[in-house]
Amino acid sequence: MRKMFVFLILGLFLISFASAYQSLGTFKQGSEINLQQVCNNCSYVNLSEVTYPNSSFALLGQYEMTKNGTIYNYTFSDTNTLGTYIYTTCGDLDGITTCEVMEFDITYTGEKTLSTSSSILYSVFFVILFFLFITIIFAINKLPSQNARDDEGNIIKISMLKYFRSTLWFVEWMIIIAIVFIASNLSFAFLNEQLFANILFTTYRVMMALTPIIVILWFIWIFVKIAQDKEAKKLLSRINFGSRI
Question: In this structure, what DSSP letter does residue 92 have?
Answer without folding.
Answer: E
